[in-house]
Amino acid sequence: MADLQASLRAAEDCLDAGEPKEALQHCKAALKADKQSVDAFLLIGRAAHELGEWQQAELAYRKALDVQPNCVAAWTGLARLFAASGNAVGAVEANEKVLSLLPEEDPSHQQHELCLADAYNRCGRYQEAARQYRQLLAHADDEGAEEAPLPETRVELLCRLADIQLKLDEAKAVEEVEARMTDAGPGRSVSNVQLEVLSAQALADEEAAAEACTTQTLLELCSIAPPAERFLKYHEEWLKRCLLKIFSAPPRSVERQHFRLAALRECHTCMWKGGCSALPYEAAVWLLEEEEEIKGGHVPVVGSSCGVAGGVMEGGEGHVGSGQQAVLFAFENFARRMVHQFPSNPTAQVCLGLMLRRRACHDGTRPVPQALRRQIEQLMKRAMEDDSRSDCGTGWKALAELQYENRHYPEAYDTAVRGLRWLHSRRERGHEALTHVALSLRLVVAKALRRMSKLDEAEMHFKVLAGWVTEGETAFGEMSGSSPVSIHQQALRGIALVALERGDKGAAMAQYERILGKAALGRGPAEHWAHADYGWLLYQEGDIQGARQHLEDALKVATSSGCIVTDSQLAEHHYRLGEVYWKMRGRYRTEKQFAYTQFFDAASVEGHAQAPAFAALGRYFQEVEGKAEQAMRCYKRALALDPSVAVAGSGQTPPSWVNNVLGLAGEEAGHAAATKPAASLHGEDSASRGAGYAALGDIAVRS
């Protein structure tokens, strides 16, 4: 017996010293002294475990159990062995036996409960695993963390429980989707059915008992877990469930609005916590877009549930001093932080472009310069190359409008069509319909088609818009940086411009008179372009005083506070008013504050009116001031900008007009320039353009 005890002590000392092979030799000596020694078998199992000899270790523990079936140490050794070797079934058996033998007050009882839960999880017995994890969490709540400390933290337990519950929910959702798809009609897609199932599941899970509720587990986990990458998926899953509940209610319903505001509050909470996920910001973007669609963007900050949800509050936290556009300010809150934290995210880049455009528009006190518009266009174009990565419907509207304002008409048309398709697919997925964004895109399509000389298609789109939209309805666009636009007025204007390009001035004037007449009756204000276009038609018809009145009104409206106008639009108004002043003769032609000032303001801005404005300046310098050299420079600049430009009222190109007025060209040069029709200089005919420049150069030399 003394030899047995000595061998066992020596084996234990070797194991403690990290020498399992030496321990096995002492265990063999102990077995020679007593072939039924349970302690020797246990030490052999422990040594073989450390050496990685799984079969030998299990055999030793089994022999110990043959001698003593209820040996807790043997079952504990088997549980550890099976956990290390990956034998989940054996781990379940061993841990269940240990728990049946150990008293509940034993310090290792909860550790074995945790091991049993992990073993259930590895076996695929998720229901038993979830029940075991909930039991562990309940013990911690009942006994207190100080009296019964868990080997694993509460956060880790909640993570494991959440993983299992998410697996169960996913399996249940897959089964339900498959069952519904067998009964679904031909018009139902998998994504639609899946959305219905997931939204109903999220709503039902919230109403379930707390002990079996995935939502409750995620809520508790997100409330105590830091927003680190380790817990990223749980924070995202919690937010996804808040978003899915939105789709369980019908569109435009009060219940849906309630769920939307609750989701916005969660996005706001995630934003102030920080974190590694862009999902709260991306979700907030489309939630606030729907808020703008439903409420028009003008929601009072004080007492506004939307303002609280979006983080718009008086004071430093919301960075909003005062105002009535809570939705817009909430969008700015999310967008600024998203751009700072996720600068390469496509939605963040789109939001940056929208913020830059809003700041460029400012309050409407100055026009938006062309160079800045092009920079913003390039930024948004790069961010929206991939339709599937975009979560911002307002971005399509802003990009299409920018491309149209920058005279990139084919690109504006393509962007608007892509945006309309994206909005359609978005609505098919169950989102609210962004009607005003769609109307604005449809308007860009029609306007771009007119600029591309596809008059029949453009007229069809304009007439459809005029029939769809009532007189007072506007497509607001505070998020996109554009002022509210009357779709009805724009459609009527498009019809008028199409008629004008077809040579039907009577029909065009009738449309403008219709717009201005409604404004005179108080049925909505007339925009600056309505006065400008109608005034130009009156000028062409010979009504100079009427033209002057309307063009001055156009400039007054365009430069008033709150009216967002581009620099090229304003330049066109200046040029037209300058031509009217020129036609009035007298001091309107000779004094610089009239015709000259209007032409100069128009020529300083890149746009459609720049070339004719330079031609008009040349005419002013030649006829009024008698400065041939300055006139020649203006004509050269006009011809370089647009070879087809003609001096207003004469139908002649600048070279021929200079030849006729100055009489400085020789007979050959004068004949070549005077007989050259304006149309021959239009387009890409390099020979005719070269002849025009040669004649102009000859005139410059002679002068």
Automatic annotation (TrEMBL):
TPR repeats: 38-71
Biological processes annotated in GO: RNA catabolic process
PROSITE patterns: TPR
UniProt xrefs under SUPFAM superfamilies: HCP-like (SSF81901), TPR-like (SSF48452)
Any GO CC annotation of this UniProt entry: Ski complex
Keyword field: Repeat, TPR repeat
UniProt xrefs under Pfam families: TPR_19, TPR_7
InterPro entries: Ski3/TTC37 (IPR039226), TPR-like_helical_dom_sf (IPR011990), TPR_rpt (IPR019734)
PANTHER family linked to this entry: SUPERKILLER 3 PROTEIN-RELATED, SUPERKILLER COMPLEX PROTEIN 3
Name by which UniProt lists this protein: Uncharacterized protein
Species for this entry: Chlorella variabilis
Lineage, uppermost ranks: Eukaryota, Viridiplantae, Chlorophyta, core chlorophytes, Trebouxiophyceae
